[in-house]
């Protein structure tokens, strides 16, 4: 039986460990963005416990997919992030909610290491983290000592920290969704009208300042009401999302696509003159001719009218005028379509 001095030493060590966990919890509970949560959490683990290796593993196809892509693209976070498929993660952890502590031969856990990195560790702690009750990855720590994360040690505090991290994730996701909806259309994921007004003003001033080209396309779907009335609003929504996805796919990174209202969309093309903008829209129209929307075993043609305006046009004095000119060009294009006049290359005359 341990003597009093030993018992007091154990109590003191436990209190110190609990304090360190508490310090980490205090730091992360107020964070409301995902990259900062990952960065602060891992830094605190390394600093508080002098653990040389800490990183996060996330299941690729989870509710965090959008955030994972953002992090994976960052050189800053790559070395502390591992993306793993669900089957591999399940085989290694059993999808248990309790931490997995392993020492000795860790070769089978290499799939959990960040890509291209091999840590000289002989023990590992894998603490699963969850979102809305579903395990979406783990918080991992590694040490060169085989005794640091011996399977027999108590992992309750580590499990408690993982629970707090899971709670933080719920807060972060809720906050990010609110922020996303403030700037984006909830159906298509494109920028909304309010944000587009600011972006249009910014890009217009930039084009004038640096004397570069800038074109704006205003488009709306043809016979969209018929689609809703005959095939239902579900198909109508699918059509809007399909158009949004394809428009974004045809555009460059510097281009901006927004849902203006209903079935109306804007495509802002920096460093693009009017002729190039019209050629782009012709390519997009040609694509939809061969690629209708396929939903529920049915095929729905995708047809739209568009108007193009550019800062090179006469009478453009501000961003609002540019938008108005594109709207007027759209109106003329729709009149031409109804009258049976061919659009496309002829639209350059509008």
What is the radius of gyration?
A: 28 Å
SSE pattern, N- to C-terminal: HHEHHEHEEEHHEHHEEHEEEH
**DSSP summary: helix tally:** 11
Query: What's the mean pLDDT score?
Result: 87
Short summary:
With 350 residues, the protein is α+β, with helices and mostly antiparallel strands. It is built from eleven helices and eleven strands.
Task: Summarize the structure in words.
Strand 7 and strand 8 form a beta hairpin. This protein folds into two domains: 4-183, Beta-Lactamase; 193-349, Alpha-Beta Plaits, CATH 3.30.70.270. It contains eleven helices and eleven strands. It is elongated, with a radius of gyration of 28 Å. The protein is α+β, with helices and mostly antiparallel strands and 350 residues long. A five-stranded mixed beta sheet has the order 2-1-5-4-3. Helix content is 49%, strand content 19%. It has helices at residues 4-28, 34-49, 65-72, 75-78, 86-93, 156-183, 193-210, 224-231, 233-250, 274-290, 319-338, and strands at 53-59, 81-84, 100-103, 123-131, 134-143, 214-221, 256-261, 264-270, 293-295, 298-300, 304-310.
């Amino acid at each position: 039986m341990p003597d009093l001095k030993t018992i007091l030493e154990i109590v003191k060590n436990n209190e110190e460990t609990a304090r360190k966990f508490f310090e980490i919890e205090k730091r992360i509970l107020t964070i409301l963005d995902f990259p900062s949560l990952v960065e602060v959490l891992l830094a605190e683990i390394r600093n508080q416990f002098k653990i040389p290796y800490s990183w996060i593993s996330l299941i690729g196809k989870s509710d965090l997919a959008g955030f994972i892509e953002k992090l994976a693209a960052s050189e800053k976070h790559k070395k502390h992030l591992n993306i793993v498929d669900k089957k591999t993660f399940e085989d290694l952890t059993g999808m248990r909610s309790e931490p997995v502590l392993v020492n000795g031969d860790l070769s089978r856990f290499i799939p959990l290491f960040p890509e291209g990195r091999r840590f000289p560790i002989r023990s590992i702690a894998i603490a699963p983290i969850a979102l809305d009750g579903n395990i979406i990855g783990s918080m991992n720590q590694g040490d060169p000592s085989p005794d640091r994360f011996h399977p027999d040690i108590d992992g309750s505090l580590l499990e408690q920290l993982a629970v707090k991290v899971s709670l933080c994730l719920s807060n972060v996701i809720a906050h990010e969704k609110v922020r996303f909806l403030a700037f984006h259309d909830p159906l298509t994921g494109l920028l909304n009208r309010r944000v587009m007004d600011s972006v249009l003003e910014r890009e217009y001033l930039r084009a004038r300042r640096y004397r570069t080209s800038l074109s704006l396309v205003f488009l709306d779907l043809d016979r969209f009401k018929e689609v809703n009335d005959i095939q239902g609003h579900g198909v109508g929504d699918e059509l809007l999302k399909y158009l949004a996805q394809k428009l974004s796919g045809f555009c460059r990174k510097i281009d901006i696509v927004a849902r203006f209202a209903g079935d109306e969309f804007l495509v802002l093309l920096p460093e693009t003159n009017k002729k190039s903008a019209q050629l782009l829209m012709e390519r997009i129209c040609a694509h939809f001719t061969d690629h209708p929307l396929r939903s529920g075993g049915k095929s729905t043609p995708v047809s739209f009218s568009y108007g193009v305006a550019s800062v090179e046009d006469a009478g453009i004095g501000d961003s609002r005028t540019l938008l108005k000119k594109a709207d007027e060009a759209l109106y003329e294009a729709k009149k031409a379509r109804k009258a049976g006049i061919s659009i496309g290359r002829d639209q350059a005359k509008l």
